[in-house]
Amino acid sequence: MGFLPATTEEFSSRMFSIPFAERFLPRWAAVVVPALIWGFAHSTYPNQPFYIRGVEVGLAGIFIGVVMLKADIFPLLVWHFTVDAVYTALLLLRSSNPYFVVSGAAASLVLLLPLAVSLFLYVRRGGFTPESDLTNAATGSAPAPPRAEETVSSVCAPPRARDPRRVAAALGLALLAFAAARFALPRPGPWEGERVTVDKVGAKAAADVFLKRAGDDPAGYLSVATTATALPALESASDSGADLVPYGESALAERWLLERGGMPLLARWATSVFPGPVWNVRYVRALDEHGATVAVDARTGRIAGFRRTFPEAEAGGSPDEGAARAKAASVLASFGFDPLAWDVVSSKSEARKARRDTLVVSESRLDRAGEAARRAVTGLAGEVPSLFATALKLPEEWVRAREKSTVPSYIAIVWKIAAWGTLVGLLVVEFVRLARAGGIPWRRSLRLAAFLALPAMLARILSLPLILARYDSQYSMSVFAVLAGVGLLVGVLVSFGIALLAVALVLALKPDAAAAFRRGGADGPRAFAAGAGAAVLVLSFRALAHGVSAAFPLEAGVRGFAFPQGVETLLPAAVVLDTIVLRALLLGGGAALLALLLGDVLAKPVFRVAFLAAAAGIFAPFGARTPGELLVPVFAGALTGLAVLAALAVFLCDDPRAYVFAAALLAAASAGTDLVTSGITPWIWNGAAVFAAVALLVVFRGLDGPRGRKTLTTP
């Protein structure tokens, strides 16, 4: 609790942020801005006024930022570790047990030992070691002199010629992969033929009607609708079912059904017994315990379940067990179930200050899957229905056996951590090497990154209402607004950071890359053809990977119902366009990083093989329990990963425009098509907007040819 916050926060908020901000801000602002961002990131604790925590921590950040400029990072690490460790160790230090007190003191004050040693040596030697041999110049790490103005061409250098044989081979493999996915392998998932007919407006309207009939006024609440797949389960003896709504998907329920009856049984339960795709509509009011969540079947618009909350002190009835069971039976019947086909398995009541709440659990005699059965959970707040949900009750012995960690579980964890650690470590090494060598054009990178982060900013603003689904009504709306603002700012900064990393890597490797997007700056038809070839290759192998996963559903798992992208937001097309930009950045930045690594760390074939083996761990699932559950997802993910690498090597190469075309065509073929074929008018229009944007990109940058090369001088 002391080491991790000290290192991550001081490295990111001081050691990196201050020198980085100094490149485009005066020194005082380079200290103040990161300090305030760091301070308000700590403002999620309840305080009055709500901003006071951010201000006081921000002021502390300004002070320690000045300390870093004067004394470097080590004092900050000691201070931060000691403060956090002491806070965490207070429980031990306040204990009456001497062992706990000594342990807490040793753990929290360990970094003060170097201070004691330094004071002892200072007294013994009569002073500190001379600084003359400790400067950056003496150790050879002094900053390089300022670079001269860089000369950038107004036209991108022509990309290297594609090998026709490699192109033909790649397209042939794409055709074989598509044929195998279409004709040889099963279609993935239990959702074939299932269509959504209700959008979020229709879901809110249905939920409003239900809430009015329940005696509440939906206009008095803030509301938000989110998508989910309803395949719920009761997994343990302590699972009462009180939190089944909002509905979600249980991986254990999915596995149980696959083990007992394969995909046909899972498809029946996921689409007939349970509602499958649903809208969870939440109603919430600040500083008020009244609220509700209503689950709406996204295929029919029917209410599939609900949960209402009331203050504990609110008055209500106190029905006896017989009356509570009768009321629960009437609620069950109101959802279209025959109470005579259900047996009550438990009825628990709890006395509140002015009422008695009851939870009645019934089990179906008809809907069974082996030892598991469908259960209905009905809650009453006094005599008012407060909950109705259904779920699959799983055998507890099977659940306990399934949750035990195995050797593949530990292998998956180690492999995944090693994979991400390798990728992040290599990225940091190459980025630092380029920065220290002066190979990154910072000003151009910052301008381009700021521009490319705009779609992400728009998408996040449009997604702001969705955070109401996680709003804790104990906080005031002003506190919630601050938290939402901080979350938005952090999200935008993350998007800007991703854009900056990708753009910096690309411009360091290919300084004239930005010129490719000027009119006549590159060969448009050639870039479009390359992007189309890359999209075809990736889409074909992605379909093959999905087919492999569908052939081994127990090992690979089954994905939930795939709603079209962005339909929870105000403008799905904006979310898809943000995905296009992000995908182009990841493709371009990844290609630049790979090119740098191949010329440096991965120059030897043995290192390349080791890198690919380690990187495959990205697809390792944390929940793997058997060798098959580890290897099948890795193999399926590796198919798509290798297709992306092949697309980079064969089609995209060093053609900047081709990367954008590939990202745009991938989005149009997946998210755009899903929206256009949804059958819901607002979604169709958003899908049409996506296709129109891609078409405009092709018209304005896919048809022009290169003009003569000119050079521009930029600071």
How does this model look, in words?
The chain is an alpha+beta fold and 715 residues long. 56% of the residues lie in helices and 12% in strands. The chain has 23 helices and 11 strands. Strands 2, 3, 4, 5, 6, 7, 8, 9 and 10 form a 9-stranded mixed β-sheet that branches. The chain has a two-stranded antiparallel ribbon with strand order 1-11. Helix 8 (164-184) runs parallel beside helix 17, helix 19 runs antiparallel to helix 22 (656-676) and helix 19 (572-598) crosses helix 23. It is globular, with a radius of gyration of 30 Å.
Largest sheet, in brief, is: 9 strands, mixed
| Distinct helical segment count | 23
* Count of strand segments: 11
Based on CA atoms alone, the radius of gyration comes out at 30 Å
Mean pLDDT: 88
Shape: globular
Low-confidence stretches: 709-715
> Beta-strand level of the residues, as a percent range?
5-15%
Structural class: alpha+beta
Query: What is the rounded distance between the termini?
Result: 44 Å
The helix fraction, in percent, is 55-70%
